[in-house]
Amino acid sequence: MRLTVIAPENVYEHEVDPSMEVRDVKALVEAETGTPVENQTLSTDSGVALTSLEKSLSSYGLTGNSATLFLTFSDHRPFPSATSGSSSTSDDDFERMRLQALGDPRLMNQLRQANPEFAAAIQSGGARFRDMVRHQAEDVRRTKEEKERQTELLNADPYDIEAQKKIEEAIRMERVLENMSHAMEYSPESFGRVTMLYINVEVNGHPVKAFVDSGAQSTIISPECAEACGIMRLIDRRFEGIAQGVGTAKILGRVHSAQMRLGNLFLPVAFSVLEGQSVDLLFGLDMLKRHQACIDLAANCLRIGNTSIPFLSEHELPEQARMRPVLAPEAPGPSTLQPQPSAGPSVTTPALAGSSRAAGTTQSSADIQTLVSLGATPDQAAQLLEASGGDVDVAASMLFG
C-alpha cells in the first residue's frame, strides 16, 4: 500500500503494509523529518487521530492500494537535513544526528569500510563531527547548484543538437537508475557475488583444489602444480603452442595420462600444461562430458555416477579465488587467464578474467568514500560512478536528483 504523509511543508510517500503499527509509521516520519515520535500527530483524512502506537494502520481503516495521513508537529525542532549547511543548526541537532548514526550498526560498519575518517568523527563527536557534516552538506549544495546550472544551459537553446543529445542522455540515465532501483528493491540478490566452483581432488596422490569450469574446452594444469604433482616429467612438448582468445597464453605441452582422485573415484585424466593462469588445476568440459558429470547447484556438488563431490565453501577456496571488496577494476593481465570455449575443436582458448564492471570505467576509493559520506551505500556508490563514467559530481547529482 502506498502511504502518503502530508506535512505542513512537505509530502512524504512510503510503500507500507496495512499491518504496520502506528509506532513504525511515526519512526519513518522521524527518519524523514527528524521530529521525535512524541511530537508527531497523525490523523486520517476524516480527522481520526492515530493515538494508539500499538494499533495497525488497517485497524484505523487504512487499507487498499493507497492511503493518506496528515501530519502536524508540536514543539519540535527540525532535524538537520543532509542538504542543510546552515551554521545556525544547534549542537543538540548535531548530537541527535550523531547518536542516530551510532545506533545503526549496519551504517557504522559501512562507514568504517568506506569512510573511516567520518566514522571516527561520529564516534568522537564535538567540533570535528560538526565540521565534517557542514563540509559534506556544502559539497551537496554545490553539486545541486551545478546540476541546476547545467540544466539551465542545456535548456537555453532548444535547437542546439549537442544540448539535446545531453538531455537525451540524462533522461536515459534517469531510466537506468530507476531500473537499478527497481532491481535493488525487488531482486537484491542480483547484486550479490557468487564464488566459483571448486572441488578437492588428488592428482598423482597430491591434493589440489580444482576449479570446475564447463566453459573450458580442456582440462588444464599450471606448470607449478604439475611439478608439485610429479607429472611435469611426462609432458609431451610436441603439443606446445599458443592459446588465443581475449588474451594469449603459452601451452607448454600435454600430459597424456595421470591419475586423479575425486572422492572414491580414481579417473585417468589428460592435462594441457598452460602458463600464466591463476588457478592450479582447471577441470574442463572434456572431463565433464567423458564421465557424464553433473554440476548440481541445488545439492552444491559435482556428481559423477553415484559419487558426489561437494563444492568448496568460500573459506576453503584458494587465496586468489576468495571474494574481496573491489573498489576499482583491475587491468587484465597474464596472471588472470581463465579458459573459455574456443573457436576450434583442438585448441583451448583462454580469456582474460577481469572485473564484472566495465573495463573502461575506473573508480577511485576517494570518489566512493565521497558518495558514501553523502548517504549512498558502497555498492550504490560504485554503481553510480559506473553509470556516470567515473564523474563523482554527476554521480552525486544522480544520488540527489
TrEMBL record:
Molecular function as annotated in GO: aspartic-type endopeptidase activity
Region spans: Disordered: 327-362
The keyword Coiled coil is annotated on this UniProt entry: yes
Domain UBA as annotated: residue spans: 361-401
GO biological process, one term: proteolysis
SUPFAM superfamilies linked: Acid proteases, UBA-like, Ubiquitin-like
Keyword Protease: yes
All copies of domain Ubiquitin-like, residue ranges: 1-71
Keywords: Aspartyl protease, Coiled coil, Hydrolase, Protease
Residue ranges that the Swiss-Prot or TrEMBL entry lists as coiled coil: 130-157
Compositionally biased spans, kind Polar residues: 335-349
Function (record text): Probable aspartic protease. May be involved in the regulation of exocytosis. Acts as a linker between the 19S proteasome and polyubiquitinated proteins via UBA domain interactions with ubiquitin for their subsequent degradation. Required for S-phase checkpoint control.
UniProt family annotation: Belongs to the DDI1 family.
Protein name per Swiss-Prot or TrEMBL: DNA damage-inducible protein 1
Source species taxonomy: Eukaryota, Fungi, Dikarya, Basidiomycota, Agaricomycotina
